Amino acid sequence: MKKTYLVTEYYHPNQNTTGYLFHKLFVHLKKEYGSELSLIIKEDKNNDAVDPDSIIIKDSNLNKKNLFQRLLFELLISFRFFMQIVKNVKKQDLVFTGTTPIFLLIVMYLAKKIIGFKWVLLVHDVFPENLVAAKVLKKENFFYKFLKKVFDVFYATPEKLIVIGQDMKDLVDEKTKKKNSIVIQNWIDENDIQVELKQDNEIIQKLNWQNDGPIFQFFGNIGRVQGVDNIVEAIKMIEPTKRPRFLFMGDGAYVNQLNHAIETLNDSNIQYIGSVQQNEKSKGLNAGDIAIVTLAEGMLGLGVPSKAYFSMAADKPLLAIMDENSEVACMIKEYGLGWVVPPESPELLSKQILEIVDMYHSIELVSARQILIDNFSEPVAMKKIVEVLEDVSNIK
Questions:
Q1: Residues 227 and 146 reside in one and the same domain
Q2: What is the pLDDT of residue 60?
Q3: CB 335 within 8 A of CB 328
Q4: Same domain, 249 and 166
Q5: How many CB atoms lie within 10 A of CB 136?
Q6: Number of domains observed in the structure of the chain
Q7: What pTM was estimated for this model as a whole?
Q8: Angle at which helices 166-176 and 142-155 cross, to 10°
Q9: Residue 133: its pLDDT value, please?
Q10: Sign of the alpha-carbon torsion through 77, 80, 86, 87
Q11: Sheet order of strands, 338-341 included
């Protein structure tokens, strides 16, 4: 009997966005396939497995903050995934994976060579190109060229790739020299995000910002490729007397720099309140009027900020700071969901912010939540994913 396996490091909504998406995917596919669907997941002591029959990869106690131990951790976890895949998956089976843990693509490539199963890859990150965007490696670097050559082979191995944007499809098709990628945007269950009046929002109440607007909010990862420094530079260019309120929420590699910048500005209109727990995501997404969504320069085709879809579920207009050809920017322009400003252009961004402030109380915006429900909700994506799985399963 053919079986379908979901192989993922993250599987629970409380873990991160990948966990949220794979949890939704599992719940839906379980209804479709029943006992023919199995999970191969990494142990998480803070969250129960979503299926008691899951094949669980034992976690490691190595210190992930130490670079060497982190590398050992990734190698060990990937080896354990490899052993369980080889032990359980048969030639006639179908395996669906994402791109984590880091070495999962190597594991899948080798296991597929040994067993001969069919593989569908959901691409959220494009490696090693994302290392260039994050300024970890340069394109001219020999090690980067080596990694790219090897990983191009890995990305070309699945029968089908699901990518989350047209810009990513263009890049991946060029990378693999194939045209076997299918665009299925990130999916969100709008019922998981409640719409709340700003005046009723607990975060806004604590700041005593209930009657102020518009409030620009940044919610999510404050990392290297989010371009938060560009937002800070734009804020600095706005006269203090004309600055609207900015609220930053999240965690990441850039937090210390952000805190330092806010201290230097010494402006009560600019606040960072730390991270918001996954189970309180609605509070964070509703804390403001306009959601800032970013992709740093050089990230075209390398990622799609899922925060955009969560903000749409909270019915927020979007201020996208990214390449105009990126997936989210194209979506904003097509449906009239907000504004797009190119990355690394703080002067243009500051002007756009002031324009939004001037027009905010007089413009009528479309319902971002309704656009999400009609075009980017969970049922829409699940139908497309099932079609891909069935097509691949029927390949002789």
A1: no
A2: 87
A3: no
A4: no
A5: 12
A6: 2
A7: 0.88
A8: 100
A9: 84
A10: negative
A11: 270-272, 245-249, 215-219, 290-294, 318-321, 338-341
Same structural domain, 217 and 325: yes
CB neighbours of 99 closer than 8 A, spacing ≥ 6? 105, 121, 122, 123, 124, 125, 127
Helices 104-115 & 142-155 angle (0-180, nearest 10): 40
Segment (H or E) for 118: strand 118-123
Name the pairing type of β-strands 245-249 and 4-8. unpaired
d(CA 140, CA 99): 25
Same domain, residue pair 76 and 87: yes
Alpha helices in the chain (DSSP H): 17-33, 67-88, 104-115, 129-133, 142-155, 166-176, 202-207, 228-237, 255-265, 281-286, 307-313, 327-335, 346-359, 368-375, 378-393
User: Whole-angstrom Cα distance, residue 183 to residue 161?
Assistant: 9
In the block, tokens 């413009």 appear at 363
Q: How far apart are CA 254 and CA 340, in angstroms?
A: 23
User: Would you say how long the chain is, in residues?
Assistant: 396
Range of the domain at 96: 4-187+377-393
- Per-residue confidence in pLDDT tens, the chain, 396 aa: 689 999 999 999 888 888 989 999 999 999 999 999 999 999 998 888 888 899 999 998 888 778 788 889 999 999 999 999 999 999 999 999 999 888 999 999 999 999 999 999 999 989 999 988 888 889 999 999 999 999 999 999 999 999 999 999 999 999 999 989 999 998 889 999 999 998 899 999 999 998 877 999 999 888 777 888 899 999 999 999 999 999 999 998 889 999 999 999 999 999 999 998 877 899 999 999 999 999 888 888 998 888 999 999 999 999 999 999 999 999 999 999 999 999 999 999 999 999 999 998 888 889 999 999 999 989 999 999 999 999 999 886
Residues 34 and 167 in one domain: yes
Cα dist from 186 to 298, 304, 305, whole Å: 21, 8, 9
Task: Extract the tokens encoding 128.
Answer: 């090693």
| Angle ∠(241,245,247) on CA atoms, nearest 5 | 150
